C-alpha cells in the first residue's frame, strides 16, 4: 500500500485538531450568565450593564465567536425554520426511537408543513445548556421542546428572554411559558376507573413518577380509587425507570409481593407491553388473570396481542395546537397553555369481566 502523502496527512491532522466552533452557551458558562444575557450583550441591548457587556464581548472575541447578524435580522420575518428539540440521555439512548415520540414528531412535521414552515430536528444532551442555540444563532425562528426534561426555572428564564418556544407537557405552577399537553390526571383516572369497572380490586400502577406527566397520571389513579372509597395498597405502586429490563424486573417483584394483583395500569403503551410479556412468562394470563391498560395509543397498541386497552392522546390536534401557539408568539402575541382531553380505547387486554 502506498504511503500517505505529507499533504494528505497534514490535512487530516488539521481537520482532526481544528477546534469546534464556540457556541453562545460556552460564553454564557464562562461569564456566569444566561444565554439570553449573552445574546442581549452582543446585540448591545441596554438591558445589560456596561461592565457585564464588556466582559461578555471580550470573552466572545477571545473565543473567536461571531454573531450571525443576518440570521438575527431574518429570524422573525423571513426565517421559516422551526427547531424541534429532543433530549439525549446518556443513560437512556432509545428515547428518540420511542413510537410515541416518533408519532409526535411526525405530527408536528405535518403541522409545520401545512403552515409553510420547515422543521429542523435537533438532539441535545439533556444536562447541557445549549438547548436554545438554534434560536440564538439564527438557524431557527422558534423552538418546540418535546417534553419537560428541561428545568422549570430554565424554561421560565427562556420565556423572560422573549424566546418563542412551546413545550409539549404538563402545565405547572408559576409557569410563564406556553405548554401544550393532554389532561394526564383525567387520563390516569379513565384507565383506572375502567379496570375497577371491569371488576379488578387490586389495581397496580407502573411508571416513572418523577416526570410531571406521569405524576399527574398517578394522581388520576389515586382519584379513581378514592371516589369509590378505596385507598390503594402502597405495594401496588411501582415507580420504575423507562427501561424494558427494569420494568420487567420490577413487575416480577410486584407479583412476588402482591400475588393477588388483578389489574395493572401501565403509564405508557411500551411499559404495558413489557408488563404483559413479563406476566405471560410468569404464567399469568391477560386478561383472564390480570387486566392491563396502557397510555398513549401508539399504532402498535392495536396490533399487539392481546391488543391493548389504552388512553389515547390526540397527536394531530396536539401538533396543531403546538404550532399554532408558536406562530402566535412569532407574531408577538402571548398564547395560553392548552390542555387537551384524552379518551379511553378498549381492546382485548381488558376484554373479560371479573
Automatic annotation (TrEMBL):
Bias (Polar residues): 1-11
Pfam families linked: LacI (PF00356), Peripla_BP_3 (PF13377)
Positions of the HTH lacI-type domain: 22-76
SMART domains for the chain: HTH_LACI
Stretches the record annotates as Disordered: 1-23
GO molecular function: DNA binding
InterPro entries on file: HTH_LacI, LacI/GalR-like_sensor, Lambda_DNA-bd_dom_sf, Peripla_BP_I
Highest taxon of the lineage: Bacteria
Protein keywords: DNA-binding, Transcription, Transcription regulation
PANTHER family: ALANINE RACEMASE, LACI-RELATED TRANSCRIPTIONAL REPRESSOR
Protein name: LacI family DNA-binding transcriptional regulator
Native organism: Telluria mixta
Lineage summary: Bacteria, Pseudomonadati, Pseudomonadota, Betaproteobacteria, Burkholderiales
Amino acid at each position: 500500500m502506498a504511503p500517505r502523502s505529507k499533504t494528505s496527512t497534514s490535512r487530516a491532522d488539521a481537520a482532526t485538531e481544528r477546534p469546534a466552533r464556540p457556541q453562545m452557551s460556552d460564553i454564557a458558562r464562562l461569564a456566569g450568565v444566561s444565554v439570553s444575557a449573552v445574546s442581549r450583550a452582543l446585540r448591545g441591548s441596554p438591558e445589560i450593564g456596561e461592565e457585564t457587556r464588556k466582559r461578555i464581548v471580550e470573552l466572545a472575541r477571545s473565543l473567536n465567536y461571531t454573531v450571525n447578524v443576518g440570521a438575527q435580522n431574518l429570524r422573525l420575518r423571513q426565517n421559516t425554520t422551526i427547531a424541534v428539540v429532543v433530549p439525549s440521555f446518556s443513560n437512556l439512548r432509545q428515547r428518540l426511537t420511542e413510537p410515541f415520540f416518533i408519532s409526535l414528531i411526525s405530527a408536528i412535521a405535518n403541522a409545520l408543513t401545512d403552515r409553510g414552515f420547515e422543521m429542523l430536528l435537533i438532539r441535545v444532551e439533556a444536562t447541557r445548556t445549549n438547548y436554545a442555540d438554534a434560536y440564538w444563532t439564527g438557524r431557527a425562528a422558534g423552538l418546540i421542546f418535546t417534553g419537560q426534561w428541561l428545568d422549570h426555572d430554565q424554561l421560565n428564564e427562556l420565556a423572560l428572554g422573549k424566546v418563542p418556544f412551546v413545550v409539549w407537557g404538563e402545565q405547572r405552577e408559576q409557569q410563564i411559558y406556553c405548554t401544550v399537553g393532554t389532561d394526564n390526571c383525567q387520563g390516569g383516572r379513565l384507565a383506572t376507573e375502567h379496570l375497577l369497572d371491569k371488576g379488578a380490586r387490586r389495581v397496580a400502577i407502573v411508571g416513572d413518577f418523577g416526570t410531571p406527566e406521569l405524576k399527574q397520571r398517578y394522581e388520576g389513579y389515586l382519584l379513581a380509587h378514592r371516589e369509590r372509597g378505596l385507598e390503594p395498597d402502597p405495594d401496588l405502586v411501582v415507580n420504575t425507570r423507562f427501561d424494558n429490563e427494569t420494568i420487567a424486573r420490577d413487575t416480577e417483584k410486584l407479583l412476588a409481593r402482591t400475588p393477588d394483583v388483578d389489574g395493572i395500569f401501565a403509564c405508557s403503551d411500551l411499559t404495558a407491553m413489557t408488563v404483559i410479556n413479563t406476566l405471560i412468562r410468569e404464567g399469568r394470563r391477560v386478561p383472564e388473570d390480570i387486566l392491563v391498560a396502557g397510555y398513549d395509543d401508539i399504532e402498535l397498541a392495536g396490533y399487539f396481542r392481546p391488543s391493548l386497552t389504552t388512553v389515547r392522546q390526540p397527536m394531530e390536534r396536539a401538533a396543531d395546537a403546538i404550532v399554532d401557539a408558536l406562530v402566535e408568539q412569532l407574531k408577538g402575541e402571548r398564547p395560553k397553555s392548552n390542555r387537551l382531553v384524552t379518551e379511553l380505547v378498549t381492546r382485548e387486554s381488558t376484554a373479560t369481566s371479573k
